[in-house]
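Title: Prediction job returns without error message
Component: structure pipeline
Severity: low
Priority: P3
Assignee: unassigned

Description:
Job completed but the reporter wants confirmation the result is attached to the right record. Sequence as submitted:
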Amino acid sequence: MKKRLFPLFLALLLLLSACGASVSNSASAAAGDSGSMPGDMNGWTEEASADTAESGADFSAVRKNAKLILNANLTLETQDFDKATADIEKMAADAGGYLESSSLSGDAGSRHASYVLRIPQEKFEAFYEQLGSSVHVVYSSRSSEDVTEQYTDIETRLATLTTKHERLLALLDQADKMEDIISLENALADCEYEIDSLTGSKRHYDDLVGFSTFYVDLKEVQTLTATPEGSGFGAQLAQAAKTGTRGLVNAVRALIVGAVMFWPVLLLAAAGGGAVAVLRRRRRKAREAEQTEISTKKDDR
């Protein structure tokens, strides 16, 4: 009885594998079509300077039925570096996120910190606005990548492979020939390898979709960068005037700091210059006296 049923199970297994491959290819083709769409059809992208960092646009409706990977980039400035770094880390923790990586460089007065923060997707908008309102924003941008098709493809292939795995186990239980057992065990090993690989990919997408990524650069400055209060010609002139004034002040400040820092060198240079001037004066007087003496001798003759 087992020998009669075994060919039937093999035929069903081959049919199931063919159907699974067809479904997988269809999903992959759909994913490829999605990947070839323009950027604005495959998620959203938005760049903003400081005047639009607090726009508060809500994209929750767009993300409701889609698998979107959300990213944000912000360049921030602060005059109280220690407080700003503590606030950023606290805000991330309060939002249910975590610090993936960070770096700190520079000396007091010109320090620089870089953060990679992972924030739950449902807190993306709130955290984005909170950063913009608590620290001075110089530049900000945010974007999304739609991976719905890829994710659906993985789920479909996993379901097909899971069913195939169950069928292979059933066939293995009924196989009584050594060559059939070896063949089925090899097929099971291949099937389990594919399942593990797809499960890892699905877990990776779940992490990227579940937690958005914030790339934050924080700079310590003495004077905050002026941000334009409009886009008209007058606003641009005002911005240029503020930038020029700030540049002049910084240049004068740098000269004063440099003079204080290198005062020994300046003192030696001044002393050297004075010594050279004295030597030249003495030589000139000696030369004049010599010429006067020669002239006197000629007159006496």
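Comment from assignee: result matches the submitted record. The first strand starts at residue 45 and ends at 49.
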